[in-house]
Amino acid sequence: MKRAVPLTITALGGFVLIVAYFIPAAQGWGEIAAIWFDILAAVAFVLGGGNLLKIHLKKVSDRKGGWGYSGITLAAFLITLVVGLAKVGVNPNPHFPEVALSGGYREIGSPFWWLYEYAFKPLTATMFAMLAFYIASAAFRAFRAKNVEAILLLGTAFIILLGRTFAGVYLTAWLPDSLSGLKIENLTIHIMSVLNTAGNRAIMIGIALGIASTSLRVLLGIDRSYLGTGKQ
Fold first, then answer.
1. Among 53, 107, 112, 198, which one is least packed by beta carbons within 10 Å?
2. CA 196, CA 209: separation in Å to the nearest integer?
3. pLDDT tens digits, residue range 105-161?
4. CB 148 within 8 A of CB 141
5. CA-CA distances (angstroms) from residue 230 to 13, 18, 53, 135?
6. Residues sharing a CB contact under 8 Å with residue 110, sequence separation 6 or more, in sequence order
7. Which of 41, 43, 19, 44 is nearest to 31 (CA)?
């Protein structure tokens, strides 16, 4: 019963959405399923918040390694939650000036907007700036010409990088018009518009087939890993 109910709900929801998409007469079923999805998503947000509090409060109380980060996470979560839910510092809506909390909590200058602009955005930018170093390190390892595939990758990356700079255009500017296709900038355009597009489409087709097969496994109850342990 503990597994049968979520399996049944998942299968019904999935097949209703599929039928509603392909059969116009059943389009209303899809709208009803979408409303229920929004309700369940709201409940899931509450459960997620409760789970976050539970995990990090336990780490802080047990003084486990890195408990200070858990304390910062809890403080940031609670401050953002209170500021957003209580609409702290929100100005009244001009159409309803007598109602104190009628304004939007995301208006420019509101505390919630300030948290987003001056706390969330800088932290996100910092994280991606650090990721750039990891990407550069991974690219350095991947571009080592150890085999044919690595040589092709290295050569292609070198052409693309050089073709995006003024130096690349200058180096091949002496080629006559009959050999214009060999100029760095034209090679870059050809690689990006033909080879890269073909590779992207192949990857997208593969992703779509993978999503379709995985979705069918979930709807038919073959893949039950989303229930937790994955055991029967």
1. 198
2. 20
3. 778 888 889 999 999 999 999 998 888 788 878 877 766 767 888 788 888 888 888
4. no
5. 20, 25, 26, 34
6. 89, 90, 91, 103, 104
7. 19
